[in-house]
Write a structure and sequence with these properties.
The complex is a heterodimer. Chain A has twelve helices and two strands. Chain A is mostly helical. By secondary structure, chain B is an all-alpha fold. Chain B folds into two domains: 229 residues, Arp2/3 complex 21 kDa subunit ARPC3 (Orthogonal Bundle); 92 residues, no CATH class. Chain B has twelve helices and two strands, in the order H-H-E-E-H-H-H-H-H-H-H-H-H-H. Chain B has a two-stranded antiparallel ribbon. Chain B is globular. The chains are: A mainly alpha, B mainly alpha. Chains A and B meet through helix 2, helix 4, helix 6, helix 8 and helix 10 of A and helix 1, helix 2, strand 1, helix 4 and helix 7 of B.
Chain lengths: 299, 351
C-alpha cells in the first residue's frame, strides 16, 4: 500500500514537471482566449476617448493610421504614429501594462527574432565586426531591423486599440458602412458568437477528459485524443449548424439579411474624424520625405 | 503563419487583395448555389470550428508540439469553395477581433491559407483518394498528405511574398523597408519549419480526424466524394495501419535529391558539348561497354542542337540551379530524415 501511494506521488510530480499534459496546455489556451475576449468587452464599455467615438470614425481613423505606418519610408514617421497610438491608449484608459504584455513584448520577441539575423545578412556598408565570429554588422542591416520592428510594434498597437475599444457588434455595423457585403457581415457576426459556444464545448470536452485522467498520457495516445477531439467537435458543429438553421427558418429567415444602422455622428465624432485624417495625412507626407532618411544613417 | 502588418508593403497587400477577390466571388457564387439559405449558418459554424481547433496543442512524435490550421479538414468536409470562405472568415475574425494577423495583410493570409491551401488540399485529396471507399485506409493517407501539402503550399506562398519585399522596396541607402530577407533566405527559413513541425501537425490532425469520421459518421465525407462506394466500414482503425506508408514517405523524401546528386548524365541523353569534354567522354565510354565515343559530336546532333534551346535546361529552370533550389532540396531531405528519426524515437520509447 505504502509503496503504491509513493509511486502515485512520483507520477504526479513528474507530470507537474513537464508543464502539464497536452490536455492541460490546450485547456489553458482555450481559457486565455476567452479571457482576452471578455477583457476586451469590458474595456470597450469603459468611459474613454476611443470608446465614446462613433465606430465608423474609429475604424476609418485607425485604419488610416495603420496604412500610413505601412507606407512610411522613414523611421520618424513610424515613431510619430506610434506616439499617436500611445496617446490614444492613454486617453482611452487602456492600461499600458496590457499593451506591453499583449502587443509590445510578444511582437518584440517574435519580430526581433526574425529581424536580428538581418543585421548581419543585409548587404551594405560595414559598421562593426563581431570578434571571434567574424560576422559583419551593416548599417543597412540595422536600419532594416529598426524599420521592421518599429512598423510591426506600431501597427500591432493600433489594431489592438481597435480590438480593445470597440464592441464587436459595432465593428460589424461599421463594416457595413465600409461596403463589406451584408452576407459576410452576418457570417462574421454569427461566427463570433459561435466561437464562444465552440470554445466552451471544447473546454468542457477537455475538462471532462482531464478529470478522468490518471497518470501520464503517452505521445501517440495524446495524438489520438487530439484527433478524436477535433472529430467530435466537427460532428458537434454540424449538429449545431442544423439546429441553428432550423431556428433561423422558424423565425422567417429566407436568405436575406437586414441590419439596423442607428449610428449618429456627434460633433465630437466630426472633430475626431478630422483629427485622425489630419494626423494620417501628415504622416503620409512625412513618410515621403526622403531627406529624413539620411538622419538615421549609421555610416 | 499569420503574417502581421508591417512585413509586407502596401503594394503587395493591394495586389493580393486583387488576387484574392475573384476567388472569394467564385466561392461565394458556388457555395450559394449549393447551399442556398443554408450558407449563412453552415459557414459561420464551420469558421468558428476552424478558429477553435487552431488552438489545439498537438503533440508530435519526438516531444515537440504544433498547431493545426484545419485547412484540409475544411476542404475535405465542406469542399474546396466552402473551405475558402470558412477559413477566410476565421482569419478575418482573428485579425479584427483578436488582433492575430494583420489587417492590411488579411488578403495575403487568406490567399496563402484559405485559397491556395484549400485548392491544394482539395486537389491532393482527390488525386490520392481517387474514388476509394469512404472508409478505406487510402482516404486517411490522402487526407494526411492533403494537410501536409496544403500547409506547405501556403508557407511557400508566404515565403515568396516575404522574399520579394527586399527586391522591390528599399530606402535610399539600400536598406529593405519591409521583410528584410531575399528569396534565398526567406524560402528555406519558412519551409524548414513547415516541412517539419507545422506540416507534421497538420498531417497528424487531418489524417486522425478522417480516420475518426470513418468510424463515427462516414456521411461527412460524402460531400467531396459523392460517387465513392461505402460498402464496409474498416474493421481496424485506419490511422494505425498506415505506419508502413509514413515510413515509405520518409524514405522517398530522403531519396528524392539523390537522383540529382548522382554523377553523370543519363545514357543517350548527351548534348553536343559533352563530346568535347574529356571527363564526360570517359563516362560515356564506361557506360557504353568501353566503346569510345566519336571525337566530334555527330554532325546531325551538332546541327540540330542550336535549333531549340529548351527553356528548362537539364529539367531545371534557371532559378532551380541556384542556391535556393538547393536549399529546398536539402530541406526536403532533412524533413525525410526528421520524420524517420521521429518514427525511430517513437518506436524506441514505446519499447
Amino acid at each position: 500500500m505504502i509503496d503504491n501511494s509513493n509511486r502515485t506521488n512520483k507520477f504526479a510530480l513528474k507530470a507537474r514537471k513537464k508543464r502539464g499534459s497536452f490536455v492541460e496546455r490546450t485547456l489553458a489556451t482555450l481559457v486565455s482566449k476567452t479571457e482576452h475576449a471578455l477583457f476586451a468587452e469590458e474595456l470597450a464599455q469603459a468611459d474613454g476617448f476611443l470608446q465614446k467615438l462613433d465606430p465608423r470614425v474609429k475604424i476609418v481613423g485607425l485604419l488610416a493610421l495603420i496604412l500610413a505606418a505601412t507606407l512610411a519610408r522613414n523611421i520618424f514617421t513610424i515613431l510619430f504614429i506610434f506616439a499617436v497610438a500611445v496617446l490614444l491608449a492613454v486617453l482611452s484608459g487602456v492600461p499600458i501594462r496590457t499593451l506591453a504584455m499583449r502587443a509590445w513584448l510578444s511582437a518584440l520577441f517574435f519580430t526581433g527574432m526574425i529581424a536580428l539575423p538581418a543585421i548581419f545578412l543585409t548587404p551594405g556598408d560595414a559598421l562593426f565586426r563581431l570578434p571571434l565570429l567574424g560576422w559583419t554588422i551593416t548599417a543597412q542591416g540595422i536600419t532594416t531591423a529598426i524599420y521592421l520592428i518599429s512598423r510591426v510594434e506600431t501597427t500591432v498597437t493600433l489594431s489592438l486599440l481597435l480590438v480593445l475599444c470597440t464592441l464587436w457588434t459595432h465593428v460589424l455595423k461599421a463594416l457595413r458602412v465600409l461596403r463589406v457585403p451584408v452576407v459576410f457581415v452576418v457570417i462574421l457576426g454569427m461566427t463570433y458568437r459561435y466561437i464562444f459556444v465552440m470554445l466552451e464545448t471544447a473546454r468542457n470536452m477537455f475538462e471532462a477528459r482531464q478529470s478522468r485522467l490518471v497518470g501520464k498520457l503517452g505521445a501517440s495516445e495524446s495524438r489520438r485524443i487530439a484527433a478524436a477531439s477535433v472529430g467530435v467537435l466537427l460532428s458537434k458543429s454540424f449538429y449545431l449548424n442544423s439546429e441553428v438553421y432550423l431556428a433561423m427558418q422558424s423565425r422567417g429567415f429566407r436568405g436575406e439579411v437586414y441590419t439596423l444602422d442607428d449610428f449618429q455622428m456627434q460633433r465630437r465624432d466630426w472633430f475626431a474624424l478630422v483629427g485622425f485624417l489630419l494626423a494620417a495625412l501628415f504622416a503620409f507626407w512625412l513618410g515621403r520625405q526622403d531627406s529624413l532618411e539620411s538622419l538615421l544613417s549609421f555610416n | 503563419m499569420h503574417i502581421p502588418d508591417g512585413y509586407l508593403s502596401p503594394v503587395t497587400c493591394a495586389v493580393l487583395y486583387a488576387a484574392a477577390a475573384p476567388f472569394w466571388a467564385i466561392a461565394l457564387n458556388r457555395v450559394k448555389k449549393l447551399l442556398n439559405t443554408r450558407l449563412v449558418p453552415l459557414l459561420s459554424v464551420f469558421a468558428a470550428f476552424s478558429f477553435v481547433i487552431m488552438m489545439f496543442n498537438i503533440p508530435l512524435p519526438g516531444g515537440t508540439t504544433g498547431h493545426a490550421a484545419g485547412i484540409a479538414i475544411a476542404a475535405i468536409v465542406l469542399g474546396v469553395w466552402g473551405s475558402v470562405l470558412a477559413i477566410s472568415v476565421a482569419l478575418l475574425i482573428q485579425a479584427l477581433f483578436f488582433g492575430d494577423g494583420g489587417i492590411t495583410a488579411f488578403a495575403a493570409n487568406s490567399f496563402n491559407m484559405a485559397i491556395v491551401g484549400s485548392l491544394v488540399a482539395g486537389a491532393v485529396y482527390r488525386i490520392v483518394a481517387n474514388n476509394a471507399e469512404l472508409a478505406s485506409t487510402r482516404r486517411v493517407v490522402a487526407a494526411g498528405l492533403a494537410g501536409y501539402a496544403a500547409i506547405n503550399a501556403a508557407a511557400f506562398c508566404a515565403s515568396i511574398e516575404f522574399g520579394i519585399q527586399p527586391l522591390l522596396f528599399q530606402d535610399a541607402s539600400g536598406a529593405p523597408l519591409y521583410a528584410p530577407y531575399p528569396l534565398s533566405i526567406a524560402v528555406p527559413a519558412m519551409m524548414i519549419g513547415h516541412l517539419t513541425v507545422a506540416g507534421l501537425a497538420e498531417m497528424v490532425v487531418t489524417a486522425g480526424v478522417v480516420a475518426y469520421i470513418q468510424r463515427t459518421d462516414v456521411s461527412l465525407l460524402k460531400l467531396t466524394a459523392p460517387d465513392a462506394p461505402t460498402a464496409n466500414i474498416a474493421e481496424t482503425p485506419g490511422w494505425r495501419s498506415t505506419k508502413a506508408l509514413w515510413i515509405g514517405l520518409a524514405a522517398l523524401m530522403i531519396l528524392t535529391p539523390l537522383g540529382l546528386l548522382t554523377a553523370g548524365t543519363a545514357w543517350g541523353e548527351w548534348s553536343a558539348d559533352d563530346f568535347a569534354d574529356p571527363a564526360v567522354r570517359e563516362q560515356i565510354a564506361a557506360a557504353s561497354g568501353n566503346q569510345a565515343p566519336p571525337t566530334a559530336p555527330p554532325e546531325g546532333l551538332a546541327r540540330l542542337a542550336d535549333i531549340w534551346t529548351s527553356p528548362i535546361p537539364d529539367y531545371a529552370p534557371a532559378f532551380m540551379n541556384s542556391a535556393e533550389f538547393g536549399y529546398i532540396l536539402s530541406a526536403m531531405f532533412g524533413t525525410g530524415i526528421i520524420i524517420l528519426v521521429f518514427l525511430i524515437i517513437g518506436w524506441i520509447t514505446r519499447k
